[in-house]
Amino acid sequence: MRIVVDINHPAQVHDFKNFVRDMRQRGHEVMVTASEKEISYRLLDEYGIGYTRLGSYGTSLASKALNIPVLDIKLLRAVRRFRPDAFLGFASVRNAHVARLIGRPAIAFEDSEPARFGQMLYVPFSDAVLTPACFRKDFGRKHVRYDGYVELAYLHPNVFRPDPSVLDAIGVGRDEPYFIMRFVGWKAGHDIGRGGFDLETKVRAVKALEQYGRVFLSSELPLPRELEPYRLTAPPGQIHHLLNYARMLVCDSGTMTTEAALLGTPVVRCDSIVAAQDYGNFVELEQRYRLICNVATPQEALDRALELAARPRLKDEWRARREAMLKEKIDVNAFMVRFVEQYPESLETCRSLEVPECSTGSSS
User: How far apart, in Å, are the Cα atoms of 165 and each of 145, 172, 242, 245?
Assistant: First the structure.
């Protein structure tokens, strides 16, 4: 089988890295294509994954819209000689368009309900759209719901083993408490009308959390001079190991919120969208598993973070909650391999509800 795996965001390198490895080990040919966004190329290089560069959509909404046909054409040219049997990606617009043009199936992962514009561009041209079971929208007969989160493709215990040696790289002792704060740039299409931490609260949060341990910052935006000494300088590929050992994550990042929760690290997430229209995975992780704390304002986030930081057995509480969650969720990478390898029979299997890990159509 010849498969194109398309990468459009750094997080997607993690989503598909184990899939690429496993499919190649099983004798399939995999071509990785990638557009330039933040550290996506750097991560691919760090993991030793060969890929074809497609360039960038740009940072403004106007440039992203104008570059859609440009990157469609670049992908078409890149895969023409490869002659793929199927395309796999995460909400990849160009994957869906090119797959339809050459008459091949496009299999897409999705977990962001507010990303309506992107879904309008790729869902009609996709043959299967795979989402967590808690996803709050319905894409009809092409919609497959699986019992997990896409981050479990690389953070499930079957594929992830935390490495304590990463603590040496940031100068932290094995039993020394530390906190990670992550701030995003709020430039994606689904970020319109949303916001997280303001600069003043970032500064106050760092100073307040320091009484409980070291503080490290990761930010898509430039940091002011007074916060620059707190910047996390470890290689990007080590972030999940660092999240695993952190006492808490305080952030306005959606992806890292889920990652920390799945590792059993307490999370306080600040996002003004916190309401009925929030993402299904954040609602489930908070209400069903009590692994994250969703708040709408920076001050609420700071108050909640300080309250949790004062708990002496905080990590023990979260580890127990994580174990309860994992008992109900699947190894998503293994599911991904089976679904693609057995496609299109796998889609029919999910439709007929022959396996408990997936289903199609509306959720109950």
Answer: 37, 10, 10, 11
Length of the chain: 364
Q: How far apart are CA 256 and CA 210, in angstroms?
A: 21
**CATH code given to domain 166-326:** 3.40.50.2000
Report the C-alpha gap between 128 and 106 in whole angstroms.
7
Q: Enter the tokens of residue 154.
A: 């690389």
- The closest of 310, 363, 290, 352 to 135, measured between CA atoms, is 363
C-beta separation of 7 from 91 below 8 A: no
Burial string for 266-283 (b: 16+ CB within 10 Å, else e) reads bbbbbbebbeeebbbbbb
Fold category of 2-156+330-360 in CATH = Rossmann fold (3.40.50)
- The domains of the chain are located at 2-156+330-360, 166-326
Tokens, residue 256:
């890292």
- Give Cα separations from 309 to 196, 212, 266, 303 (angstroms): 20, 7, 9, 10
Q: Is the peptide bond before 344 cis (omega within 30 degrees of 0)?
A: yes
Same fold, 2-156+330-360 and 166-326: yes
The verdict on pTM exceeding 0.70 is yes
State the DSSP code for 29.
Answer: E
Structural contact between residues 26 and 341, judged by C-beta atoms closer than 8 angstroms: yes
Q: What is the pLDDT of residues 262-311, one digit of tens each?
A: 999 999 999 877 654 578 999 999 999 999 999 989 999 999 999 999 99
The answer to whether residues 149 and 14 touch, using CB atoms and an 8 Å cutoff, is: no
Per DSSP, the residues of 304-324 read: HHHHHHT-TTHHHHHHHHHHH
How far is residue 69 from each of residues 8, 31, 89, 95, measured CA to CA in Å?
15, 21, 17, 12
